[in-house]
Amino acid sequence: MKTKKAVFVTSRVHPGESNASWVMKGFLDVLIADSEYSNLLREMFVFKIIPMLNPDGVIVGNYRCSLSGRDLNRNYKSTLEGQFPTIGNIISMVKKLLTKLEVVMYCDFHSHSRKHNAFFYGCKKRGRKERKLVQEKVFPYLLAKNTPDHVSCCGSTIGEKRGFHFNTRDYELLGVSFLHTLLDYVNLDKFQGAMVKSSTPDDILYFQDLG
Predict the structure, then answer these.
(1) What integer pLDDT is reported at residue 115 of this predicted model?
(2) Contact 54, 72 (CB under 8 A)
(3) Widest CA span in the chain
(4) Of 39, 138, 154, 180, which is most buried, counting CB atoms within 10 Å of its CB?
């Protein structure tokens, strides 16, 4: 247990973003499968997964809000835990696990109403060490390399998918690719480290010990 790393994955904080559930399905199908690959993932990580953070909003057909009429994604700092129980509980869960294990990833699956392809939003908190901010760019970069037909940092249409909408299978494959990339991320070898360095020339000093 002590040698494992923890990964948090959540989805559907916004009820109307149903595409996120298909990504979660692809993620879970691989994770719970009876295969050597899936066993390896479960041996390496402790997964904490909440497939639907806003079930009440989903049931009543809201697009962004909960039953309280509030956007849960804007209330992670709220002290009104009674109004946002799922948010309060996920925060408590993260804090509790941090006392036991290293949490290497927290990812919340969303869908976007205007932007194309798959992309990441990160949290750029003021006062954080620059090296930490750069490290957080590694996973999105590796995922983009693993899924060149889907993932883009710029949100534009790309490659053979230009002009087409993703179908449910595309979303499921994104969830699968997320798990593949997770293994790459925690086992970054010298070749991958060099690849990341070469792609971010302004950040080379911060990647000096990768691999």
Answers:
(1) 74
(2) yes
(3) 51
(4) 138
What are the pLDDT digits (tens) for 168-192?
A: 888 888 888 888 888 888 875 544 5
Which whole-number Å values give the CA distances from 199 to 64, 182, 202, in the listed order?
36, 19, 9
State both tokens at 208.
């000096």
Q: How far apart are CA 192 and CA 57, in angstroms?
A: 41
0.85 exceeded by pTM: no
Instruction: Select from 131, 196, 116 the least CA-distant residue to 162.
Output: 116
For 67-105, write each residue's pLDDT tens digit.
889 999 999 888 787 788 999 999 999 999 999 999 998
How do strand 102-109 and strand 5-11 relate by DSSP bridges?
parallel
Would you state the structure tokens that stand for residue 100, as one six-digit string? 């036991």
Angle of helix 168-186 versus helix 19-31 axis, rounded to 10: 50
Please say whether the beta carbons of 196 and 210 come within 8 A: yes
Give the mean pLDDT of 148-161.
52
